[in-house]
Amino acid sequence: MSCKKAPRITNMLSKIVDGEKGEWLSKVVIESTKPYTYDAGNAEDRVIFEGKGVILNMPEGTTEVNDGLLREVIVKQDGKDNVLVKMMLEHPAEFRLEAFEGFPFRLEITLDRSIITKLFSGKKIVIDPGHGGEDTGGKGPVSLQEKDVVLPMAKNLEKILRRASADVVLTREGDVDISREKRFDLVGQAGADIYIGIHNRSCVGRNEDGVATLYAPTNKQSAILARCVQEGLIKKLKAADRGIAEQAELAMINEVPAIEAEVLTITNLVEEVFLRGLTVQKRAAEGIFNGLIKYFAQNGTYSKGDCS
Ligand SMILES: [Zn+2]
């Protein structure tokens, strides 16, 4: 076979999609110039794809995905004309492989995310976007206000959690001020399993940056939940890890695990810019969500969580 004519893998991408029957799927798309022979199989926590008689026309290496099911995709040329794609999973999952003719030729590997919906089904989660109305919360060096950032983050998180079959209660939907007591009362009224406050860090020093998660000192599970969420946020945001700490006011919630995620530092000039971005607002929600998966997985059958 002449090298010029060999099929080449030119692009690879991953996304979360809804299937035709309403299934929730993680999808990996492998694009190439032409069809080639291939094989795929799964071991416990990975799906391995092998392309035969095909050349990799993109960089080898590892791409972090962290979508809750698919952790990373490792791509490499294996010998002269084989390509190996390893999809590393957080939990075992069924997969399906489909080919789509055309240019580019597309192979789609879909992974079943129902293991996540099983974890969240029946769970009730109170999400509390901090501040609101007169209470603006922290302020960025330019003009960003904490109350305006944490609300879209909370709504993004609500959306993912609902897709994952959880029951969600938001303490505020708009720009209104609610007392701490009222917010906390909702936990009992809703019969919630966990409480998640969303805030930003505010520091005196302009150079202070990063992410922290605070937890209720009264409920033992709160610290574990905080570790899970902190880890999820750090992985997604690639920000400085300011650790977890007790937050005395959260002691008012003692019946369920309660945390406050302090997503980036609004008083930092660079992080203020990040916080404005829709991508970071979305990633923050995904990071918290990944932490919640780990947290609930610890008590489930598919324990891979290690946040304690
Ligand atoms: Zn705050």
Q: How does this structure look, described?
A:
It is built from six helices and 16 strands. It is an alpha/beta fold. It has a six-stranded mixed β-sheet, with helices on both faces. A five-stranded mixed β-sheet has the order 5-1-2-10-9, with no helix packed on it. The longest helix has 21 residues, at 278-298. The N and C termini lie far apart (55 Å). The structure holds zinc ion. Zinc ion binds at residues 130-131, 137-138, 146, 199. Zinc ion is lined by residues 130-131, 137-138, 146, 199.
Keywords:
Aminopeptidase; 6 helices; alpha/beta; 16 strands; 308 residues; Immunoglobulin-like; binds zinc ion; 35% strand; six-stranded mixed β-sheet
